[in-house]
Amino acid sequence: MNYNITVIGGGIVGLATALQLVRKNPALKIALLEKENVVAKHQTGNNSGVIHSGIYYKPGSLKATNCIRGYNLLIDFCREQNVPFELCGKIIVATDENEIPLLENIYKRGIENGLTNLKKLGESELKEYEPHVAGVEGLFVPQTGIVDYRLVAEAYQRILNEAGVQIFFQSKATAILEKNGKQEVVTPSQTFISDLVISCAGLYSDKVAGMNVLDMNIKIVPFRGEYYKLKKEKEYLVKNLIYPVPDPNFPFLGVHFTRMAKGGVEAGPNAVLAFKREGYKKTDVNLSEFFETLAWPGFRKVAGKYWRTGLGEMYRSFSKAAFTKALQKLIPEIQKEDLTDGGAGVRAQACDRTGGLVDDFLIYETSKAIHVCNAPSPAATSSLAIGETVAEMAKKRLS
Ligand SMILES: Cc1cc2nc3c(=O)[nH]c(=O)nc-3n(C[C@H](O)[C@H](O)[C@H](O)COP(=O)(O)OP(=O)(O)OC[C@H]3O[C@@H](n4cnc5c(N)ncnc54)[C@H](O)[C@@H]3O)c2cc1C
């Protein structure tokens, strides 16, 4: 079990990283370890399926640069590999006058981030794009698209198999040891020895990085995002993608409507604290993980700051009527009866010690390891760019 590189995590970021490593150097011997029996079982396979344009992110941040680069790489990849996608555009809707300055800021950010053909919409123009929407002003973002990220991840996996990268399923990394200048990644069944370890472990990225980074100053806080689906006969209410103006203090975009690449229209996701990292149901609880979250000083500060927003999200999680009310801000015609349960995803959001929800992508490095520790949305859009960045870091270490 000797390799040049061991990659931990078979989500879209780990797969894209392995892909960019072999593209740079086909001679590399790479092992990719995934604890489940398929790729994309967690965040990658349970997301909104949006190809983000990069409009929201702080100019110059890793999110902004990797999103825009990743967007172009992803579109080229989907074209080459025949993965279905559609660039249908989206509208962001200000539902009251107070949101207009925030919408203007998003417009300016989009321009700074290099987006072209953004279109400001008045009340009546909004209806030309989405006849059932209600709002005072809006913004059309033509670049936004939709794709099924599970299919993208499976296409990455196919290419990795062809390139000779070995993917080991049901291989949970439980320890990373340094021995004789090599890195040993221990799993219950075998040990993988390599010159470099790269981890992209999503909801467990802090745990895996913590196996060889001593002073981890972040903790992953899991936020479940629950969806409803529009009943088939109500899908006419949404043509493409309809987003609210997001709360700039919060890292999530607010409940929105998304026409899915695989068919159907989803409404959501909300953002509720999950009591288990891979807790997809409200009843899923892992006491040790939950108490670990509560004990993290940064989380207690976040809870102190955002308790009102958090309680609102929790209430909407338990009350379909309240969830519907949030959706009615965008489409007043929507009724509770138009919605059926649509599943959930859990976001891995890094929280630092001082109570900051880490906004940007975050990568930790040691002399023999690279750990992707915060890769929230738009990391699916950006996966090939993040992979490229990590592969470049790896190249410097191995040369
Ligand atoms: C509800 C929701 C909606 C989103 N919407 C969008 C969107 O529309 N567009 C967008 O661009 N992004 C979106 N995102 C974000 C995007 O899905 C994630 O940023 C992206 O999938 C992260 O990929 P990943 O590979 O880092 O993590 P994951 O997909 O979670 O993969 C990590 C993998 O590591 C494995 N693993 C963990 N620990 C170990 C271990 N010890 N040993 C071996 N394997 C391990 C896990 O089993 C998992 O398969 C959304 C996320 C959520 C949750």
Would you summarize the structure shown here?
This protein is 32% helix and 27% strand. It is an alpha+beta fold. A hairpin with a 2-residue loop joins strand 19 (362-366) and strand 20.
How much strand content do the residues show? 25-35%
Q: Which ligands are bound?
A: flavin-adenine dinucleotide
Helix segment tally:
10
Q: What is the radius of gyration? A: 21 Å
Amino- and carboxy-terminal Cα gap: 21 Å
> Helical percent range?
25-40%
In N-to-C order, the SSE pattern is EHEEHEEHEHEEHEEEEHEEEEEHHHEEEH
Quaternary organisation of the protein chains: single chain
Mean pLDDT: 96
Structural class: alpha+beta
Uncertain runs are none
Q: Biggest sheet, in brief?
A: 9 strands, mixed
User: What is the number of strand segments?
Assistant: 20
Q: Which geometry do the CA atoms define?
A: globular
Structural features, described:
It is a single chain. The protein is an alpha+beta fold and 399 residues long. Helix content is 32%, strand content 27%. Strands 5, 6, 7, 13, 14, 15, 16, 17 and 18 form a 9-stranded mixed beta sheet that branches. Strands 1, 2, 9, 10, 11, 12, 19 and 20 form an 8-stranded mixed beta sheet that branches. A 3-stranded antiparallel beta sheet has the order 3-8-4. A hairpin with a 4-residue loop joins strand 11 and strand 12. Helix 2 (62-81) packs across helix 10 (383-398) and helix 8 (297-318) packs across helix 9. The longest helix is centred in the last third of the chain and has 22 residues, at 297-318. The chain is globular, with a radius of gyration of 21 Å. The two termini are 21 Å apart. The model has no long low-confidence stretch (mean pLDDT 96).
